[in-house]
Design a protein that fits this description.
By secondary structure, the chain is mostly beta strands. The strands form two sheets. Strands 2, 4, 5, 6, 9, 10 and 11 form a seven-stranded mixed β-sheet that branches. A hairpin with a 4-residue loop joins strand 5 and strand 6. The chain is globular, with a radius of gyration of 14 Å.
Length: about 120
């Protein structure tokens, strides 16, 4: 069983920064990818950033140059540094872990609100 605990969300003014953290616990010996997704009200959940085993990183076009994903393997933690935040970044942000076994695990979500 894999558990994910997210933290770091909150309310920030446009142009500000936040850092999200996601700590994973449990059977993590077969992690394929760790990433962040977000879901705004009335919209589908979308990929924000993902780091795949081997180090390859992908970002949504809307966050390139503003957000940075990083992973601390020793701490089983993935971070999302969000800079130059915009009101359209407002959403619930979810951490996700994909295992090579095919299991995909989601965190409970953390709210990010950017005021204009």
């Amino acid at each position: 069983q894999v558990l994910l605990v997210e933290s770091g969300g909150g309310l920030v003014e446009a142009g500000g920064s936040l850092r999200l953290s996601c700590v994973a616990s449990g059977s993590l010996f077969s992690v394929n990818a760790m990433g962040w997704y977000r879901q705004a009200p009335g919209k589908q959940r979308e990929l924000v950033a993902i780091v795949v085993s081997g180090g390859r990183i992908n970002y949504a076009d809307s966050v390139k140059g503003r957000f940075t994903i990083s992973r601390d393997i020793a701490k089983n933690t993935v971070y999302l540094q969000m800079n130059s935040l915009k009101p359209e970044d407002t959403a619930v942000y979810y951490c996700n872990v994909d295992l090579f076994t095919g299991l995909s695990v989601w965190g409970q979500g953390t709210q990010v609100t950017v005021s204009s």
